[in-house]
Specification:
The structure is a homodimer of 497-residue chains.
Chain A lengths: L4 H27 L6 H19 L2 H11 L5 H19 L2 H24 L2 H22 L6 H8 L5 H25 L14 H15 L6 E5 L5 E5 L2 E6 L6 H19 L16 H15 L3 H14 L1 H4 L4 H7 L17 H16 L8 H13 L25 H20 L3 H6 L4 H10 L9 H9 L6 H14 L3
Parallel strand pairs in A: 1-3
Antiparallel strand pairs in A: 2-3
Helix pairs in contact in A: 1-2, 1-3, 3-4, 5-6, 6-7, 8-21, 9-10, 10-11, 11-17, 12-14, 15-16, 15-17, 17-21
């Protein structure tokens, strides 16, 4: 190994450790921080972000990367140098003044968004969104891109993926989803009503969450489950993975499938390669691949008939009065109710991706100049009507519902749909290679699937790019077919289509 | 103001923010971190400590301090420059490699101590303690000292205080304590037995803790109470103060007085000057002054007859079966039972300081070369017999009982006894200036005392040194008399001496 690689990796370790602190401070902010701590926490996070940027772009590390790039590296060394080089390159292209202005604008814009959503008043948020859009365009121009300007944004969350490549896949998805949603909506069946519209005490939901984490193989010696208003999975390394969930006494699926979803993220993190901990090669591939793991466990496992078979008796033990008269068919149908609705985060598996496709299209329209910010509410409402057959009565339930844009998270939404597609393609492959998979799930045995995912996905770190990983694991490029076939089979049966 | 002061304070803010991250990571390690997270946490803490050291000793800040020291500064500016100069001077003398090695050793040593204490196996901890001692001696030699080498350690926790100055005060204390403990032990009275030897459900103890925090005026919008194996108070600023406690179902006073103790620390932190937040001038004076606040609230308030008068009825409401037949005299006597025992943190107010004096002497013996680490268990047990008339049956109940040395906290113990002495001297003064104090406590009104402490102690930050503060608030130098007079009066009456 080259004699510049060791000092390079020492710098990489330092960056990872600063990231460790930033991650812990964020986790604490969302879980345990008392309200008055917010101002000083924001200041400390700003200082850590500045330190991280300073170390990443320090001349010494720039020199090390340049030197190593000229060498013929292989394996993890090649991945680490490539990825640190990418981040460094991006960081060097954005002047500090722009970072500061963006960060301040995002903070103020977030406050404006909260007020605007509260009053369902888009006009209050509009000038802020315009400013964010302008600054993000400036970032994109400075960072550079091939093809559409949108690729500069997408690349931050789904590296090496271009809008032009995913567009035909998303188009195929939409072509199947819109008629499927129409057919299901036309049946007028709402199987969850009555079955799940009851009170489920939070203490028992917590007990259920602990059981599920244990069954799925999430290691609680190397992680935790806490409560957060907006659930997430974060962590500082594979040895310390923090899941969060939330409990509503009147909506059991929220915590049950929410916990399974976050556990899917957590199993990915805990399964990352031990020999490359806290290095780019040992990290996750992309947000889309991350989401494939959470959605696979949440929907393809958690919302399967086999899972209900195993869990319904245990749920009846925890919630005897609520579920005593509910049979397997009723329960399975109830947790798979499809209903076109206004709010993305409450959407079922069938309608969910139409919410995302709408946002992806609007983001591209904004960046490519086909839509102006002031016209967003009307375009939003039109397309909701077109894709889902529903129309928001106000902008709080429409264009103002998501936090993302107020924080400058643009180019992030498509990773949710990519996750669903990757997840279905992986799961289909797992079914081929594990012929008894459904039987195992029905017996509450999740070790086979977990080990398969560990080997095929988790333990590879980011040594392959997302598109390479999908092709290597499944033998094919990304396709919408696995997901749409899965939906048509499952919901065709459930709704007698 | 000089035009170098603003850039100086920007650097000070950055140091405070790195300290914020270090503090949060430590808090998390003691409260919520899963066990497997320890190794990466140790590494991250090492990196942060290294960064802190690097920024503190950076040529630019060294130049700013040198420049400002040459100016005629007053007020907070003078304090900030003096204190940053002190830390910088100390840090410049310790090479970065030593700081990092110490920090990593402390983290790992702490894990070894946990295992050693669990198995009552000193041999498992011995090599770690030897390594820590070696590193701390190296630190002391590099930092330099006047008088005993021990002063280099003490100065870190109780700045500007020398072992030679406190020794005569501690000697006067020991002269009074040993015979007082003997006299009380000779009575053979154990009033807690029966009264407190019952089960007190943890849920009600938690409720009691919340009530007490509210009554004392601890702001839960600017702080929290969590559970830790070894309770402490930490925090990142006056706006985010973290208390911890622990609950034993079979020992009510543990959580009750433990929570009051930590609340005393917390009230100090929350009372620090708002206009000097996250600066040296706005910080606490010393560990001894900090401990004066916790012990004052825990013992002089919490274990007073007046406090029992107010709280016994409320305790009876929470624990009706356990306390229904207990009267005020019995309860007050029970929470003030004196019994020479093995464990420092469970010791009563009379015997407590003998535990500390023993540790203070052993630390000096270790550093001054009169005792070796391997001999600690036997020397410990001998002196326990001599001072308290009891002998540990194993090292878990002896030399392994305290967390401090595992974290490299040496020179720290004497601050506990200093705290008891400062606390008694402050409380005596409060009684002079607040004639109705006992009446207020008896009515559950703690605002008068809190405000007095806010004005006299908390809100002054570290603008005065410990010895100056004691003299300014009480009109006298530190003396053991206030504490021993308090003990003799209180326990003379309780035990009919």
């Amino acid at each position: 190994m080259s004699d510049t690689y060791e000092p390079f990796m020492a710098k990489v370790a330092e960056l990872a450790d600063i990231g460790h602190a930033e991650g812990m401070l964020s986790w604490d902010q969302e879980t345990y921080m008392p309200p008055k701590g917010a101002a000083m926490r924001a200041r400390a996070q700003g200082t850590l972000a500045g330190l991280h940027h300073e170390r990443l772009t320090a001349p010494e590390l720039v020199g090390l990367v340049k030197d190593l790039k000229g060498q013929d590296l292989t394996g993890d060394a090649a991945v680490n140098v490539r990825e640190v080089g990418r981040s460094q390159d991006r960081a060097l292209k954005i002047p500090k003044e722009l970072v500061v202005e963006l960060s301040q604008t995002e903070s103020l814009s977030h406050e404006a968004w909260i007020a605007a959503r509260e009053k369902a008043d888009f006009a209050h948020f509009q000038p802020w969104l315009e400013k964010i859009l302008k600054l993000k365009k400036e970032v994109a121009e400075r960072v550079g891109y091939e093809g559409t300007i949108y690729n500069a944004l997408l690349d931050e969350y789904e590296p090496y993926t271009r809008a032009e490549d995913i567009e035909p896949v998303f188009a195929a998805l939409k072509d199947k989803l819109v008629p499927l949603v129409e057919k299901i909506a036309a049946t007028g069946k709402f199987p969850a009503r009555g079955v799940l519209d009851q009170d489920f005490p939070v203490a028992e939901q917590e007990e259920l969450g602990r059981q599920v984490l244990e069954d799925l193989g999430f290691d609680l010696e190397a992680g935790r489950l806490d409560v957060a208003v907006h659930p997430f999975c974060s962590g500082t390394s594979r040895d310390d993975v923090r899941l969060t969930t939330r409990y509503s006494a009147d909506w059991l699926p929220g915590s049950l499938f929410g916990t399974i979803h976050e556990a899917g993220h957590g199993l990915y993190e805990q399964g990352l390669p031990e020999d490359a901990v806290a290095t780019p090669a040992g990290g996750s591939v992309s947000l889309g691949i991350h989401e494939s793991q959470s959605r696979l466990w949440e929907n393809m496992v958690g919302r399967s008939r086999a899972f209900s078979t195993h869990y319904l008796p245990r749920l009846k033990a925890l919630f005897p009065t609520q579920l005593q008269n509910v049979n397997l068919d009723e329960f399975y149908a109830a947790v798979n109710q499809v209903e076109p609705s206004l709010i993305r985060v409450e959407a079922d598996e069938v309608t969910y991706n139409l919410h995302i496709l709408l946002r992806f299209e609007l983001e591209r329209d904004l960046f490519e100049g086909r839509v102006e910010v002031k016209d967003l509410p009307s375009v939003w409402n039109e397309r909701m009507q077109q894709y889902l057959g529903v129309c928001p009565p106000d902008d709080a339930q429409g264009v103002l519902q998501d936090v993302h844009w107020s924080f400058g998270l643009m180019g992030y939404f498509p990773t949710y749909t990519l996750g669903n597609l990757y997840g279905a393609q992986f799961f289909h492959q797992a079914q081929q290679e594990l012929p008894d998979l459904e039987g195992q799930i029905g017996r509450g045995e999740f070790g086979g699937l977990k080990t398969w995912l560990n080997d095929k996905v988790h333990n590879r770190g980011s040594r392959l790019r997302a598109s390479e990983l999908v092709e290597e694991v499944t033998g094919e490029k990304l396709s919408a077919d696995y997901f749409t076939n899965y939906l048509e089979a499952k919901f065709g049966a459930l709704y007698n289509l």
